């Protein structure tokens, strides 16, 4: 699986990591437990096992000139993650700038999963994976969901090689 992700400026990254830490301190599942250097708060723009740049649109030359992009988090969102387990994430408001960047990137891609395509994409920042349903309320009470931030860089994550390749260095 490969994914192209927006990463945040330092203050926004710290705010998300503080969410992770609050959940971990309450003994709740959190991405704070995932200590790999590649683990950082991000918004996935595209993902897929066959994700690749089209010859006419390499992602290294993608929409990165549109960065930085301001983001507004608009509460929490929950996705199913198996029997009785969920993904808890911060919901990201769709803005014209974010939608334009996303659409521009996908013009030069092939192999993206349908749920990451324009028109189907739900931008979010994951806080916890596989959290039991009975712990969701407690976890949500620990989050400060009224936060604004800024995406300042982009990267390519390749799970098969466990590598991160910068696509746009943080501004």
SSE series: EHEEEEHEEHEE
Percent helix:
10-25%
According to DSSP, the number of beta strands is: 9
Shape: globular
* Residue windows where pLDDT falls under 50 for at least 5 positions: none
The helix count comes to 3
- Rg (C-alpha, Å): 16 Å
The major β-sheet equals: 7 strands, antiparallel
- Please identify the structural class as seen in this structure: alpha+beta
Describe this structure in words.
The chain has 171 residues and is α+β, with helices and mostly antiparallel strands. It has one domain. 20% of the residues lie in helices and 37% in strands. A hairpin with a 4-residue loop joins strand 8 (148-158) and strand 9. It comes from Arthrobacter liuii. InterPro entries: Cyclic_Pdiesterase. This is 2'-5' RNA ligase superfamily protein.
Keywords:
single chain, 171 residues, alpha+beta, two-stranded antiparallel ribbon, 20% helix, globular
Summarize the structure.
By secondary structure, this protein is of the alpha+beta class.
Layout of helices and strands, plus pairs?
Layout: E1 2-8, H1 10-25, E2 42-48, E3 52-53, E4 69-80, E5 85-92, H2 96-107, E6 109-110, E7 124-132, H3 136-141, E8 148-158, E9 163-168
Antiparallel strand pairs: 1-2, 1-8, 3-6, 4-5, 4-8, 5-7, 8-9
């Amino acid at each position: 699986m490969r994914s192209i992700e927006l990463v945040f400026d330092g203050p926004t990254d710290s705010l998300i990591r503080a969410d992770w830490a609050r959940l971990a301190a309450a003994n709740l599942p959190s991405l704070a437990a995932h200590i790999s250097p590649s683990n950082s708060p991000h918004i996935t723009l595209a993902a897929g096992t066959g994700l690749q740049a089209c010859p006419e649109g390499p992602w290294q030359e993608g929409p990165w000139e549109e960065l930085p992009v301001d983001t507004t988090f608009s509460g929490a969102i929950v996705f199913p993650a198996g029997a009785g387990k969920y993904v808890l994430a911060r919901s990201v408001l769709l803005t014209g700038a974010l939608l334009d960047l996303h659409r521009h990137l996908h013009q030069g891609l092939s192999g993206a999963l349908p749920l990451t395509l324009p028109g189907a994409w739900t931008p979010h920042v994951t806080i916890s994976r596989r959290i039991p349903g009975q712990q969701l309320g407690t976890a949500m009470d620990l989050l400060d969901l009224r936060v604004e931030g800024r995406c300042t860089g982009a990267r390519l994550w390749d799970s098969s090689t466990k590598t991160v390749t910068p696509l746009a260095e943080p501004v």
